Amino acid sequence: MVDWSLLPPGVEGVVRAMARSAEPMSKLNLTVPEMHLYMEHLNNLAKGGYKQPGGQTSTLIQMGVDPPEGDASYQPAVNIPSLWNLQPGNEQRARAIAFKRYGPGYWPSYPNFDVSEARYNQMHDVMAKDIGETE
């Protein structure tokens, strides 16, 4: 039995989310870059997430963007987070942080934006359950 009182705030929710999501996420056969996106979700979940003006909680706000000019490590459509330090941002801020802080090929990329959005939606279905369990 785990004594959750001994762990830092937020850790219990993340551990429970990871345990609950392990099987559904494994069925998605995530790539390493997709796991990076999922880890951003867990990181923000541990911090309590961003409270949207309507009251809902977001732990990852994904943005589909073109790859950095000249970066051949990405396909044409790249999914990056636009929620950094629990603050949503515009495309310029999201790109600056995502592509400058992390190396080439770090974020998931796809042949086109329809495929990138569909794949993110598959991941989102699992991540949404993590949030519902920890609120």
Question: Mind explaining what this structure looks like?
Answer:
The structure is a single chain. This protein has one domain (31-50, 57-134). The chain starts with 10 loop residues before the first helix and ends with a helix. A hairpin with a 5-residue loop joins β1 (50-51) and β2 (57-58). The protein is an alpha+beta fold and 135 residues long. α1 runs antiparallel to α2 (32-46). It has helices at 11-27, 32-46, 91-101, 113-134; strands at residues 50-51, 57-58, 62-65, 77-81, 83-84, 87-88, 109-110. The mean pLDDT is 86.
Give short descriptive properties of this protein.
single chain, 135 residues, alpha+beta, three-stranded antiparallel beta sheet, two-stranded antiparallel ribbon, 14% strand
Topology:
Layout: H1 11-27, H2 32-46, E1 50-51, E2 57-58, E3 62-65, E4 77-81, E5 83-84, E6 87-88, H3 91-101, E7 109-110, H4 113-134
Antiparallel strand pairs: 1-2, 3-4, 4-7, 5-6
Helix pairs in contact: 1-2, 1-4
